[in-house]
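Subject: mismatched residue count in predicted assembly?

I count 883 residues in my input, but I want to confirm that the predicted structure covers every chain. Input:
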Amino acid sequence: MSHREQQPDIRSQRLQKDEIETNFGELHPPLSRSEALIAADRCYFCYDAPCTTACPTDIDIPGFIQKIRSDNLRGSARTILEENIFGGMCARVCPTEVLCEEACVRHTHEDKPVEIGLLQRYATDPIFDKQTQLFTRAAASGKKVAVVGGGPAGLSCAHRLAMLGHDVVVFNRDAKPGGLNEYGIAAYKTVDDFAQKEAEYILSIGGIELRNGEALGEDLTLDTLRDAYDAVFIGVGLGSTNELGLERESIPGVENAIEYIAELRQAADLCKLPVGRRVVVIGGGMTAIDIAVQSKRLGAERVDVVYRRGPEQMGASQYEQDLAKTSGVTIHHWAKPVEFKGDAHVTTVRFERTALDKNGRLTATAERFELTADTVFKAIGQTLDTDLLRDAIAGLETQHDRIVVDNTGKTSLPDVWAGGDCVAGGDDLTVTAVQHGKVAAMAIDRYLRED
Amino acid sequence: MANLKSTFLGISSPNPFWLASAPPTDKAYNVNRAFEAGWGGAVWKTLGEDPPIVNVSGPRYGAIHSNERRVIGFNNIELITDRPLQTNLDEMRQIKKDWPDRALVASVMLPMNKDAWSKYLPLIEDTGIDGFELNFGCPHGMSERGMGAAVGQVPEYIQMAAEWAKQAASVPVIVKLTPNVTNILPPAKAALDGGADAVSLINTINSIMRVDYDSLTMYPTTDGMGTHGGYCGEAVKPIALNMVAEIARTKETRAIPISGIGGITNWRDAVDFLALGASNVQVCTAAMVYGFKIIDDLVDGLSNFLDDKQLKLAQLVGKAVPSVTDWQHLNLNYVEKAVIDQELCIKCGRCHVVCEDTSHQAITHTVNGERHFEVIDAECVGCNLCVSVCPVDSCISMVQLTKGTDPRTGEPISQDYANWTTHPNNPMRTTK
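Triage response: the counts match. Full output below for your records.
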């Protein structure tokens, strides 16, 4: 292999500005009023509605759709947001095809569910556009709660606590609130700085002090927070990424998908963001699809996703897999990386075919293949920051490096709750994190009022 | 294809679909377009005395829409023709000449004095029209001037005007009735007694569509003020069908031929009117909402239906009338229960919640811990509410109990007919 061949082809401006704008325009444009009324008319207003049961935040879906029908949009938005203050973002990013819309009885009837996600967006958009305050705070309780983490779990918890009359300080590691809504979700799912608009709305209820750039482990410890506050909620997400455990995993050109996505989300001009000509993504979850599709839309010539199991086991929904394919991404199943090749920079990834053995366990086969790559993105999941585990939250019971909680989010400590991706048993969805935050806030409220 | 050629009072038309007297029949231009499209006849927009009346130059119509903006109900405050009588007569004469096979009927509205009728009817008849329709129906505007529904609401006036018209006309006379009465039979009887050859019904129903949610005035308005109009369109069909059936089944009125009007939009609506006793039908709103082209489906659909049923048009007329009776004659020994087809059920739960909240608590929502909707025969009164609300066609059906015991009442199923007139709970019962 000549030295020349080893030069990675990574550069910006692969596409013209207008192409980038098209590629990163909104994936699902919002419904017009007439579209929304027709979509709303399709709702059967089910009894004990299966869609509501399927919603992790228990939104009264037939209820909010009924209000769209009658042009009572403020009432509709309130029905949504009182269960899920992130109803705006969830309308954009929820995998509705495996949640509410999968449960919709129209599915049984005609294979075409009510467009619940788009209707939810239709009802909530005006509230965020105009920053219409729909919520009031209960009488001040005199209690103060520390919320660690400014993502969906933390802000959901903070908002509910504020509603219930408590004062809240949110300690947010990043420069902006929103967590993965701001730094993680694919750009074409949340355009026009919506994550910030939503965070601003959530904070506007009052009683919530946001402290950006203050992280557990760096600036704060759980002990000091417990001393200074009446209760603590931890919603720090997952700070570290999993490792493949291969030699030369840190070779230049092998990157963590979430870091690149964060960079992409914060980029002022996507034309200036460098992207590889040939991109290989390792993993099978939403992040794998997000990085693959966004790489393609930035102008990567070839994007391969390689996942060690089959399509059914992928964490990404069928809809996401289809989105990747229609965006020109190739998905390879049943293969795992075994070697990164290249001298100063990765040039090739060598894969080993996998299969299930008689006992249903994943095993290697003798078959190998290689994919050339200018960039390799690892999207094989995240884990709770081990430093945090060792120091800042030492004393909290954990399991498989996640915080153990009961069904109200309560940890092994009497005054500490946790939720979102950092707790055991989560499913890494925004909507689940929002529910964790809400449920924990209500439990914290009960705890504070028992005193 | 079944022959739809229709003869009503000796007036023949290639099909039984006439355009009702209304804006679509105001001018030769419109009527030409209608006849080109295939309409069987037209009742010309109501003629009055000269000088003509004046219409408002603001909103004359209002509508109730579905969320898909489908027009369900329609309202108008337009008056009779606002063109000079001679203009109308000239155009009618030309139309009849150009379209000799189509029915052309003149609608008239005149003051309640005999001279007016004997003066104008011969003038109008001279155009070659096939008949008259006396507009005793319009509930707005003209009724304030003692015409239209103001006549139709007083049987004596109907009879009087019908007599004057019959004396002045040699062609058939149809009396158009207003539904803005508590009982349609006295007006129909009055028309018959006055010598009218037929009745047509219904005209429009007094209505206000809604308020404007910003100004909180009624809507629509003319310069901030509004007035009630006449309601029509799909929403009024059941009201019209009842009135048609009442006339068709009542001994004193059943002899009079009926031209059915009221919300006819497709061929099925026409079947409803014909089977319940109308000999032909008139259409306005559907044409005003969709244009004249709807005649294609009306003609084609009715023709195919008659083929399927192996019926002639005349045999369809009144076919369902014997099935209409008074409540007191319904068989109280007849028992039906709702049955839910579990294969078709999509588990929306609508049947359960409406039965639970508003009826007889006769449908489950959970069976053995599973979401499951099933009729509880011991509670079901056979009311048909679940069938009415179920979004899936044919998923819930009503099935007759023919033997055994009704689990609700514990009474054995009787094959005998027994109605309220002889029921022991009826203090006015007659002996069997």
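The interface with chain B takes residues 34, 37-38, 40-41, 44-50, 69, 105-106, 108-109 of chain A (CB under 8 Å). Marking this ticket as 'not a bug'.
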